Amino acid sequence: MIESSLAHLQMASSQPQRLREQVQIALAIADASTLRSLLTESTPPLALSDRIGVLRAEVGVPLPEGGKRAMDGVLWVESIECALAGSRPDLAAQPSGSDHQPYQDLTRCHSELHTLAQNISLSEAIALLSHAGFQSEQISQILHLPAQAWHRDWWYQSDLSGHLTLPFCRAIRTRRFADGRFSLQYRDFYALEPPPCFQGIEVAIPVEFKPADQGFGETLERVNGARRHWGTDKALVISETLSELEVQGLTRQGVSLYQPRPQALPQAADCSRCHQANCPLQGRIHSPVLTCQSYDP
């Protein structure tokens, strides 16, 4: 876990290269839930929890114009921009007021015909639709549509605050070929702004570890170079040695910060002298415990 791995780093150590390697290892072995926490618990948060899709991390990524040292890491995040109604508990199966006249207001504009996937196998089509939130029965209906038929569902796209609240209608059709492969196409019907994509957009977030001996200017230079390279306005700096001015400077430059919470190291313990009243071994003279993080002499 990133949190537990980084919490034990001695950031003020005189071996910044070794610490950098530990950060990269922590990123490399982190699971999706840990990476999600890294995004939502940074300051300011890099993403809302309900807008995060598929996550993956790369470490030691070279920069063409980044000097001698590679970027410590890059987080690739699927930013969810559209979601199928009813696919999550927080998304109503049907927006309010979509039965009669308001329906026309919600769908008065329509997009061009988009190709979601072309000439893909059955398993690829099922995986694609499953990832979008369709259930097995819906997937079967979509893949067995007659040639001129459409499958229609309500979806939501994000509003100005970043939450998925704006309803629109999406029509999907299938083209089946003699060799058993499929093409999927869709058209959106919306009120004002067209949905930006089918479901999510992959965003790169460069990750930079800042040890105590790395200056503010060098850190920002590397972060800006990485942001230009990946065409993103987001970045994450991991450090436990930032001054208040550095925190203000980085956040005002659009950089999010993650500062690991230090964990108490175990210390020699004597349960007979400990004052932790909630511990079942408190006061025990012959306790087998030799070290304890919660020891309170």
Written overview of the protein:
By secondary structure, this protein is α+β, with helices and mostly antiparallel strands. It folds into 3 domains: 2-80 and 201-258, no CATH class; 82-198, no CATH class; 264-297, no CATH class. It is 26% helix and 28% strand. The protein has 8 helices and 13 strands. It has helices at 2-7, 16-29, 32-40, 101-106, 122-131, 136-143, 216-230, 244-252, and strands spanning 52-61, 71-80, 82-84, 109-110, 114-120, 151-158, 164-176, 182-190, 200-209, 236-238, 256-258, 267-268, 291-292. The strands form 3 sheets. Strands 3, 4, 5, 6, 7 and 8 form a 6-stranded antiparallel β-sheet that branches. A 5-stranded mixed β-sheet has the order 1-2-9-10-11, sandwiched between helices. A two-stranded antiparallel sheet has the order 12-13. A hairpin with a 5-residue loop joins strand 7 and strand 8 (182-190). The model is unreliable at 7-14 (pLDDT under 50).
Q: How many helical elements?
A: 8
Low-confidence stretches are 7-14
Q: Approximately how much helix is present in the residues?
A: 25-40%
> What portion of the residues fall into strands of 2 or more residues?
25-35%
> Which structural category do the helix and sheet elements fall into?
alpha+beta
Radius of gyration: 25 Å
Largest sheet: 6 strands, antiparallel
What's the β-strand tally? Answer: 13
Output the helix-strand order: HHHEEEHEEHHEEEEHEHEEE
Q: How many structural domains in the coordinates? A: 3
Let me know the average pLDDT. Answer: 86
